[in-house]
Design brief:
Oligomer: single chain
Order of helices and strands: EEEEHEH
Structural class: alpha+beta
CATH topology: S16 Ribosomal Protein, Chain: A
Strand order of the largest sheet: 4-3-2-1-5
Number of helices: 2
Strand content: 35-45%
Radius of gyration: 13 Å
Largest sheet: 5 strands, mixed
CATH class: Alpha Beta
Shape: globular
CATH superfamily: Ribosomal protein S16
Length: about 80
């Protein structure tokens, strides 16, 4: 995959699941893509109704942050809480 690294990359949540039963994927995407649009890489998942279900690939997060991706505030907090 040929990715131009000067693009504005974000690590953010993508909503999936049904009505009144949200689940989220943690994805790497370009800043101008819509929330539930295409993404570059799936990094993890999060179930807000069951806070024990947080799966994040920390190594890939660190890799993309070093490449210039910026996590949203919510994803940053999920990463911080997942380390404990």
């Amino acid at each position: 995959m040929d990715i131009n690294y000067h693009m504005s990359l974000k690590i953010r949540l993508q909503r999936c699941g049904s009505k009144n039963n949200p689940k989220y994927k943690i994805v790497l995407t370009e800043n101008h893509y819509p929330r539930d649009g295409k993404f570059i890489e799936l990094i993890g998942s999060f179930d807000p109704k069951n806070s024990d279900k947080i799966n994040i690939n920390i190594e890939r997060c660190k890799y993309w942050i070093l490449k210039g991706a910026k996590p949203t505030l919510t994803v940053k907090n999920l990463i911080k809480n997942n380390k404990n």
